Amino acid sequence: MKFIASLILTALLSFAACLFLPWWSIALAAFLVAALIPQKPGKAFITGFIALFLLWGILSFWISNANENILAHKVSLLMLNMDNPYLLMLATAIIGALVAGFAALTGSFLRKSK
Amino acid sequence: MRIVPFLVSAAVTTGLVYALNVSWKIGGKDAPPFGTFLSPQHGFWQNAEPANENFSADLKFPQLAGKVDVYLDDRLVPHIFAEQENDAYFVQGYLHAKFRLWQMELQTFAAGGRASEVVGPKALDHDREFRRLGMVYAAEIALKEMEKDPVIKAECDAYTNGVNAYIESLTESTLPLEYKLIGYKPEKWNNLKTCLFLKYMSYDLAARDDDFEMTNAKSYFNVDDFAKLFPLIQDSLDPIIPKGTLFEKQKVFPVAPVNVDSIYFKNKDLSFAETTKPDRDNGSNNWAVSGSKTQSGAPILCNDPHLGLNLPSLWYEVQISTPTFNAYGVSFPGAPGVIIGYNDSCAFGFTNGGRDVRDYYEIKFKDDSRQEYSFNGQWMKSKFRVDTIKIKGGKDFIDSVAYVQLGNDWCPVMFDKSFSGGRSTSNKNYAVRWKAHDASNELKIFNMLNHAKNYSDYSAAVTNLHTPGQNCVFACKNGDVAIRTQGEWPAKWNGQGDFVMPGNDSSYLWQGMIPQDEVPYQYNPERGFVSSANQKPVDDHTYPYYLGRDYPPYRGIAINRRLNSMTNITPADMMALQTDNLDIAAETIKPLIVANMKEGELNAAEKKYFDILKNWDSRNEAGSKGPTVFEQFWNYFEKAVYDDEYANAPKVVLRPFFSTLPEAILKDSAYKFLDNISTPQLETLADDITAAFKKAVVDLQKIEADGKLDWEKHKATRINHLGKLAPFSRMNLPIGGGDRSINAAKADHGPSWRMVISLTAKTEAYGVYPGGQSGNPGSKYYDSFVDQWAAGKYYSLWMMTKAEASDKRVKSKMTFSK
């Protein structure tokens, strides 16, 4: 239950923070949630990771879908040297996931060890 | 709290965020900061515009005096309806910025010598050259002149405010894609930037000269050979103003200096500066046919300016409707008004005048300090302009440029010890006298043309055009057609400015300008049409002023031949003519080549290609192999004829223009240069043709093996992204044509806007440009016109009325008010 709640809260807080703050506010969001809702460090990492993997993955998929992948085709060629919009979404999701994962891990260490 | 794991984990997180927040060099290229760039709420995903985006908005700006409604149609063309004229320019500025901001700013950075700020040290030479040419100096002079005119100042101020209103609304996520990629932010617009942009057009259209190359050619060849290699007169010329036209009486009489033969024409000193130059074929076609030749009885005006092809395009389509005028056409992102287009009364267009208005003077300084220079036997004081060039990822570069006063004009010493454009081996100093340095108010032309109702309005408008000089075509609903070869041109003595001139003798300076009433023009000529295609404007034998050389004759011949024979013309006929692929030079010269080929000496493979050439219809069509064979052959033929004479020539030297060789061998099959002077025997035309063809076949076999023998595959017309990013460019477009066809579509240069306007009671207008209305590579409107353009098809241009606001073509509505 904590896992699901943390996951949803991390995603929501990240989304809200990014409306006003730079992209790295996802780290603040994941850190805060992990600090407030105690979980084991490994679990906290996975929570943050999955929250942002889903958030950034779904957001980029959603945006790109409405764009008929016009830009994702071009940017994937530019950045990945191959025409693969989905790989670009995966890269986006993983980058967000890693940052949030480590931020959540840090947050979980803030709590006393059990 | 677990201190150690916490610290380690916090360090990893911080390090990760930092690493993703800065840019890295990957494979020698700057990669954008990955975190910022990939964040779906900040980065490039935000530029992935929904395919069904609705641009409707209700916007309020205190700068506006009244209300403005903008209807964006299905091609994203804005139809601006303003209660106040200047509000329309505010909105045009806002829309230019909204759809083209990155391009607008980049163009002015390039114009003002600030490209290094964006792309780093590799642009330093470009920046120094542009500053040393006096681009900023020229723009500052233009700004002063323009701001003296209250109408134009108000227009520009409104435009600038509109651009800035958009810039101020930008957030990190709405920033144009290229800013995110390169990692910088737009700065505020101002009127100087508009002037810089216009000077950039002057550079593109009126900075073409071969003075250094010609100087070296003159020094290397004897007088007779030079005259043969660089003839002043083309036999095939069909000038813009037809032969036999009488001109106004000459009022300005330029006099050649007394020592001109020894000091200038016969001087064998070599100059070694190589300048960057705009494309030789920055030209265009335009024509207007009278009602007597059209099916409808109304005049038709056509224009297709040939310029470098880029994405985003130089052009942005727009309709501007105000209580004082209603105009439609293409505009320059960076400047207010409609540049080429039509209004409710008339239509207007341009081709480049192409005369040499950039000359160089050799300056002798007293010493290396450049403080004093010799002029008319005296030491004169120079001025200095010190430029600080900011460089991305490097230290500022400080460049000091001496300015010398030549007569009344202060001219920058563009080339000196410290700067030679990259190739000089000389210690000499060269000042540049460029017509674009002179005060002028070019925006006034477009303002007046947008308002023009008749021929006299048009004439009054275009006489404001100083630089770049243009052939201005005009047609009116009352039946008038006209063309004026407009511009403020220096009146030169024969040969003045063809070569570098001495800068210490006032008798070599420009002595005056050709008076505006002596500008050759045609108004409702008997032949029923006017036309221009960058050929020489007039017949040298009867026109009193010196015009120089290097005017391409062929497109003009093709256009006039067709227009002469056409009757009952429809807009569709005009579109077919604009996209016509006949190569008239090839048509003229091919029989001579075929007749002189020593077929007996060709092997089977060579015969195969010779058959392609023989059977070719001289049309540069997509899918045709003949143009590729002809082009390869011609390259080797020119080399066979001239390479021996040029064997010991200086590196920076002019080769004959294309038309020289065909004209020469059509006239004289024993043309002097056919013989290879490095062999004992005498080579003939047949020898050169056969030898060149055999060499060409070696290349052609390779080309065929690559599957690129078809003309359009060999030519590979492309439209490059301005930042040269391949995924944002359009490559290998299936389009025929070439530089000698009316459809002058070359590799990355060609018809940048095709327009056909039939001035019937309700105007029938067609147009297309190779680009799209949006500059955002993430928009479906980014390159939406490219395929239509390549296929030679047009869009019907919609001069919308307010009553049509509910037409199904209207996709979004933006309102602007106080």
Would you kindly provide a brief summary of this structure?
The complex is a heterodimer of chains A (114) and B (818). Chain A is built from five helices and no strands. Chain A is mainly alpha-helical and 114 residues long.
Structure characterization notes:
The complex is a heterodimer of chains A (114) and B (818). Chain A has 114 residues and is an all-alpha fold. Chain A has one domain (2-110). In chain A, 82% of the residues lie in helices and 0% in strands. In chain A, helix 1 (2-20) packs across helix 3 and helix 3 packs antiparallel against helix 5. The longest helix of chain A is centred in the middle third of the chain and has 26 residues, at 41-66. The radius of gyration of chain A is 15 Å and the shape is elongated. The model of chain A has no long low-confidence stretch (mean pLDDT 94). By secondary structure, chain B is of the alpha+beta class. Chain B has a domain at 584-715: Orthogonal Bundle (Penicillin amidase (Acylase) alpha subunit, N-terminal domain), CATH 1.10.1400.10. Chain B is built from 23 helices and 31 strands. In chain B, strands 3-31-4-5-9-10-11-12-20-21-23 form an 11-stranded mixed beta sheet, covered by helices on one side. In chain B, strands 6, 7, 24, 27, 28, 29 and 30 form a 7-stranded antiparallel beta sheet that branches. In chain B, a hairpin with an 8-residue loop joins strand 10 and strand 11. In chain B, helix 18 (604-615) crosses helix 19. Chain B is globular and about 95 Å long. The N and C termini of chain B lie far apart (58 Å). The model of chain B has no long low-confidence stretch (mean pLDDT 94). Chain A binds chain B through residues 15, 18-19, 22-24, 27, 31, 41, 56, 59-60, 63-64, 66-68, 70-75, 77-79, 91-92, 95-96, 98-99, 102-103, 105-106, 109-113, and chain B through 1-2, 5-6, 9-10, 12-13, 16-17, 20-21, 31, 34-36, 38-52, 172, 177, 725-728, 777-780, 782.
